[in-house]
User: Fold Pterocarpan prenyltransferase from Cullen corylifolium.
Amino acid sequence: MDWGLAISSSSKAYSVTTGANLWRSKHVTNNIHYPSSCITKASQHKKKTQIEYNVLRFQRPSLGHGYNFSGGGGSTYQECNRKYAVKAVYDQPKDFELEASNPKNILDSAKKFLAAFYYFSYPYTMIGITLCAFCSSALAVEKLSDISLPFFIGVLQAVIPQLFIEIYLSGVNQLYDLEIDKINKPHLPMASGQFSFKTGVIMSAAFLALSFGFTWLTGSWPLIWNLVVIASSWTAYSIDVPFMRWKRYPLVAAMCMIATWGLALPISFFHHMQTFVLQRPIGFPRSLGFLVAFMTFYSMGIALSKDIPDVEGDKEHGINSFSVLLGQKRIFWICVSLFEMAFGVGLLGGVTSPHFWTKIITGLGNVILGSILWYQAKSFDLTDKASTGSFYMYIWKLLYAALLLMAFVR
Assistant:
């Protein structure tokens, strides 16, 4: 165990270190007088005790700098009229000095990073994309033997790059909405300072490259075109350059949401499974038509409702969303109506199916979801930001259930 003694001066300061092999010059040690009390205390420790005197700003080649230790008549420690503060410092073992290498600290840092990344990536949209890919792919299944290993591999081929591009898009949105998010969404890692601006740029660029690289290796043209359309449109939605920043124009912003969730995702996922995985001719069955209609109404509702909690920050930064222009209450009930229309499409897709179990599962399921939404809509307080935020997350949960029901439409 090592012990150190730090001696600091109130005026000029220097450093002298003594140890087994550090001082071999007699003319130096002969002119330094140590208080006997310090030596006595140090000698009481275990064997191989090292006494270390640290006085700041010492330059070893010139021991006379600051104080004259080697010249004749030079000042000694006891002759100096200055006051010294002696402080005993315990030298920790090396494994404690490097706290970053401690497994516990590494684990804590990893947990904090993953928690921040969770909010950085907008996980609720990633769950929706995964279920949309499964639902759209399931519509291409014509017989039970189609549900095989290639089917699940095909679903992963569709989901993984789409999740990567979603992380890229959420990163770009947070980079350009940094000041707005400090008001509307201060919990996000960019707005709260958990991730630096540079970290956000690097992560966004990395996931963009991963998305296109993975899809290109897959070789599925429906997925390639899907990424091109979604990445370009949502980048234009967020970035603040001439003719871009589409989120400032409420109609264009709503069209981005509808084009993505109502058209690009279900159609590209379906045709990836239909043409690339199952090797069947391109087509547009009635089941896909009902899914597209359902997602069109539902995505319109999402596009309008996502701005309801963000009115304060949008007003301050000149974002004229529909919630800013028409008011939160009016937009809220328009959104509820759009969601109910979507559930009505799901009900129609179920009851018009020739299959009994589709009628029961999809038809009755959408009735239940529509009833739940109408009942819960009355309990949300539009004057409370937390309540409107919980409404937005609630409609995503209803979408998850609806997508599972739509997978049975035939």
Q: What stands out?
A: The domain at 123-406 is CATH 1.10.600 (Farnesyl Diphosphate Synthase). Strands lie at 2-9, 53-54, 84-91.
